[in-house]
Amino acid sequence: MSGYFRMGPETHAISMEMYRENRERTMKALKTATPGIKEGSVVLLQGGQDKSLYDTDVDYVFRQESYFTYLFGVTEPGCYGCVDVFTCRSLLFVPRLPEEYAVWMGRLLTKEDFKLKYQVDEVHYADEVNTVLASRNPAVIYVLKGKNSDSGLIAQPADFEGIDKFNVDYDALFPVIAECRVIKSPKEIEVLRYVCKVSSDAHKKVMKYVRDGVSEYEAEAVFLEHSYRVGGCRHVSYTCICGSGENSAILHYGHAAAPNDKILRDGDMCLFDMGANYGGYAADITCSFPANGRFTADQKIIYEAVLDARNAVLEAARPGVSWVEMHRLANRTMLKKLTEGGLLKGDVDEMMRAGINGVFQPHGLGHLIGLDVHDVGGYLSHCPPRPTEPGFKSLRFARPLQAGMYVTVEPGCYFIDILLDRALKDPQQSRFLIPEAIARFRGFGGVRIEDDVLITENGCENFTKVPRTVAEIEAWMSSK
Amino acid sequence: MSGYFRMGPETHAISMEMYRENRERTMKALKTATPGIKEGSVVLLQGGQDKSLYDTDVDYVFRQESYFTYLFGVTEPGCYGCVDVFTCRSLLFVPRLPEEYAVWMGRLLTKEDFKLKYQVDEVHYADEVNTVLASRNPAVIYVLKGKNSDSGLIAQPADFEGIDKFNVDYDALFPVIAECRVIKSPKEIEVLRYVCKVSSDAHKKVMKYVRDGVSEYEAEAVFLEHSYRVGGCRHVSYTCICGSGENSAILHYGHAAAPNDKILRDGDMCLFDMGANYGGYAADITCSFPANGRFTADQKIIYEAVLDARNAVLEAARPGVSWVEMHRLANRTMLKKLTEGGLLKGDVDEMMRAGINGVFQPHGLGHLIGLDVHDVGGYLSHCPPRPTEPGFKSLRFARPLQAGMYVTVEPGCYFIDILLDRALKDPQQSRFLIPEAIARFRGFGGVRIEDDVLITENGCENFTKVPRTVAEIEAWMSSK
Fold this sequence. Notes:
three-stranded antiparallel β-sheet; alpha+beta; 16 helices; 35% helix; homodimer
């Protein structure tokens, strides 16, 4: 089906129109942000390259760089893409492959094939990028360079032999395109809705699968299978976190040194944080539930404290509201419930000032999500800076919400020895803790409830469709 | 379970003894290969590092570098490993992580924990590699540098700040350790047997799953699910190739630009080449079968030509036999059957001289397999060089078989337009082709039968356990 990306007949069709719209929005924004920008200027992005596993001839399955996906939707490695800032005329540069490669790769697409497939205006070979650009004599070539505020890594600007002969701007594009990515278009929203639905269904399948004696990685395998076989999602958006028992308090559990290899036991809480990826677009969902499908009284206290925090945010989130305030609201709600539950004592506002919220939830309320799971645009220069107060410094953005933003809402409550020990030793914090209750919850693990939520004109829409209340979870897990 | 790698209770337990034995074999071989090697010399390897997806904070799931796995079995990134050549005393250097990381990674292992986990003699921090080595004043540090003959890439030698103060040898280790990896130890053989069994079972599940209307990627998902959920294999050894219909003739189908997204149709042949990976050790199995479970007469001709080739090799493979001769035997057997089947005419030996074998099978008979799917040791300096005759140049090794080698046997027959067109135009080749028969097979795709086979003292043992004859395949696919 030319002009669309679609994995299978039952999976979402992404129209190449979406990328054309993304190009138009970005060019328009670049013109607005760059007074005096000259006609004949172009934007040039370089796509990702194949990566080999060390010195072997095994490649990782190629995943396209996100900015390149945003503007072109191209799934092949080794490309460049160019857009005229004023006319939006689009040029795709594709690798020139030896005829022989057909034996290994299948029929090689012609330039005309690429033009149809990606609905661009011109296609050239990547080794022609210098000569094709030179023949157009662009006033300025805008390339992408800037710091990812989640990783601290730098987006690498497009480069080719001879680029130093051109007038290249490394500064203007990055904040503009990152800002464009923050507000999702209607077509992007439908992709995000799809991948969130697939991920929700996969989580539901996992909840029915688990029981005493199952290994954590089995749950991961069940999630991956549904996402791919049913949803056409070959990748997940991040390494699956499938913590059970005390592992459910390890925020990035599931990495190679802790590879989801514990056996689920009766009485364990499970915290499974997994999200599929479709066409480069991410889901990021966490479900927390008891391994055996029935909450204990203690599990219910913690779970409902987190659920109340999540509900308060879903109720309050709307354009104009500060994300920092949403974080505060979630944390306050949770601490209030923990106080009612007998774990804490004292005034919630004082607890917040003492940073008790960061003891139980050492991460931010959520993050922007889109083509990256921790999506770009959190701390651009026009945005409020990262907060410095205790319990707020892990926030991945601090800006007011706007319609079209897509965010995770993911309050959590964890019993992490190192943080509890520090708090118990700190007189400013220990006065709020009820030691015997805290002791009872050592080894409990943690609870996180994470939804993917679109900010709308009047509020928000939760794309995540999984059992969330204690009653819903128990009913779902006990049904066959 | 300290001293073992095991993913789950039903999966294979790899004893750390295996790595100790690998170290001892390698040190012994290094001494033998290096006359005058000085006491106090050490081998130093550097393990892999985490890799991020572009500039984001998403990491690929870490996979350890194969030589490092071979000597140490360590699954964490960021390590060094050192072995005293004469005493075999082993030192592991692990990253020094900030206490805070416990929140994200789980309880940080102490040096004592690492010592128990990997059964090494000493553990230090990676930032101490310079000072610890300096305190021992090693005569020579042997590091690993050499070219991978499958990828053409260079294994990167261990490096650390201050290494230039030491006496470092970059040449001696590579051929020695690569040669050690060629001959599998009894413990390695048990790992390979396990991962081959898991992969065989996963293929069998796929064969039962497929039918008209299923997408190729669904088959991939079913394979991945079994390998991981049942077998504990989080990774596959290479990108799954799930070609159906004409895609079954594309040797590296399944890559990002051809991502197993065709729908299987009645009458298609399927060629599914997939292998799980356990503890770093690879399987590599191809099953070919009709999508609907019943061979047509034409499918049977091609399938049985390939099966006869495979059977001839399994019958003949034993120590002392040249792999080049095995390739010749397979190709001759296949061409003979294609002649009987009405596709070719003339004398098989003349066909071989004209390179007709390379028209139908443009790849080698198989390759060494172990920690890498295309394992090391194919063209070391003491080995016969890559053959130059037509139809033989793709061989990944040319050395005589030895007991303890582990190889794939993977004859194939494909109808690839570009190769058929060239052959039909070449008078030296076209005289053997029966054009109307060749025309009938255009779009047929291809057949490959690939087994993972251990060379034993007296012959070989096939670790791959899947239905192979036409009757076995039809019976398996029709049973419920």
